[in-house]
Design goal:
Layout (H helix, E strand, L loop, with lengths): L1 H19 L3 E10 L3 H6 L3 H12 L8 H15 L7 E6 L4 E5 L2 H11 L7 E13 L13 E14 L4 E2 L1
Parallel strand pairs: 1-6, 3-5
Antiparallel strand pairs: 1-2, 1-4, 2-3, 4-5
Protein name: Lipoprotein
Organism: Psychroserpens luteus
């Protein structure tokens, strides 16, 4: 009877650990977007950010254009998940899709070191991280807000190699 109880408890612990851990290992190459509205918003002073939060939360979407509604919904996700001030980078994954990866300042500092003296015309940076998918993004024919959002708990590896980095204005 003790063995049965022990095995049952052990099995329940293993199952509960697996269901709580939704982390995935994702890898790809750094993708550079020169002009990105998220860069502007992430650098807003805190007092102005509060105004932005209120305007997004209280926006009457009936008066907004389709593009404004999509951007508002996208930033709602960032605000709800407390990602708006977190550093982020873009990765081009094996499928060819671009994803936005948010992380802590500590984890991002690992990437910053490799980005110093980086030449996008002669080098690529491969990143592997452990994290979770926050959102699929907001479908957007312009491609501005349709990129999935991930939260990286840990950057596992960063490798700089020869090659040309994909980028877009």
């Amino acid at each position: 009877m003790k063995k049965l109880l022990t095995y049952t408890l052990l099995l329940l612990m293993i199952i509960s650990c697996k269901t709580k851990n939704n982390d995935s290992i994702i890898q790809g190459e750094i993708f550079i977007k020169l002009i990105d509205v998220r860069n502007i918003v992430s650098n807003i002073p805190d007092n102005k950010l509060e105004e932005v939060k209120k305007s997004i939360a209280n926006a009457d979407q009936t008066n907004l254009t389709e593009s404004e509604i999509k951007s508002s919904n996208y930033f709602k996700i960032l605000l709800e998940k407390d990602l708006i001030k977190k550093p982020f980078f873009k990765l081009k994954i094996s499928s060819g899709n671009i994803i936005n990866v948010y992380t802590t300042k500590t984890e991002y500092s690992k990437l910053q070191k490799v980005l110093e003296n980086f030449d996008k015309y002669k080098e690529k940076i491969k990143v592997k991280f452990k994290g979770i998918k926050i959102s699929d993004g907001i479908f957007d024919s312009d491609g501005i807000f349709d990129q999935p959002i991930y939260l990286a708990d840990e950057i596992i590896s960063i490798e700089k190699t020869d090659g040309k980095t994909d980028w877009k204005k």
